[in-house]
Amino acid sequence: MGRRQMVRPGGRSARVQASVHTAVLALESEVGRDALTVPLVAQRAGVTASTIYRRWGDLRELLSDVAVERLRPEAAPEDHGDLLSDLASWAEQFLDEMASPTGRAYIRDALLGDPEGSNAGQCSAYAAEQIGVILSRAIDRGDDAPDVETVIDRVVAPLMYRILFRPDGLDAAYARRLAAEVPTRPAGDGSSS
Question: Are 158 and 105 in contact (CB under 8 A)?
Fold first, then answer.
């Protein structure tokens, strides 16, 4: 059975999703992740286990859906008045959130429960949206700014690689350095600074 496309539901569907997500988070802290089962989550959420199986497929897919929702930024990036400061601050915050034990667990869950990659795409879209806000502010101030993909390639990609595969020595200075090294114009546009 293939993974169903998870769209933001409304009405009863939204209430079920919220109840199930809340149950997962509460049970993880109360009984631990290894003790989680679909029937336990269903009981806590006040739904039938078949509701969870029908909607999410299995526990891994449910945990993946919860992870993607938890990785969604809650606010726009802070505005520090210039592109470099905004990017550096955002990169530090991104690193802090994603490299934390909870952040790493959510990344693993998001990827493990979604072999088709739509959750990874959604997580990438969250980062791209945040970067887009930063770049739009810079353009509105009249600053030269790269495109979103350049920042993804120069900041997000190396941070995620290091978070997942080489976390030793990963710190805020590294995130700030990556942000400082982003060219102010998109790569290959032929312009001089």
Answer: no
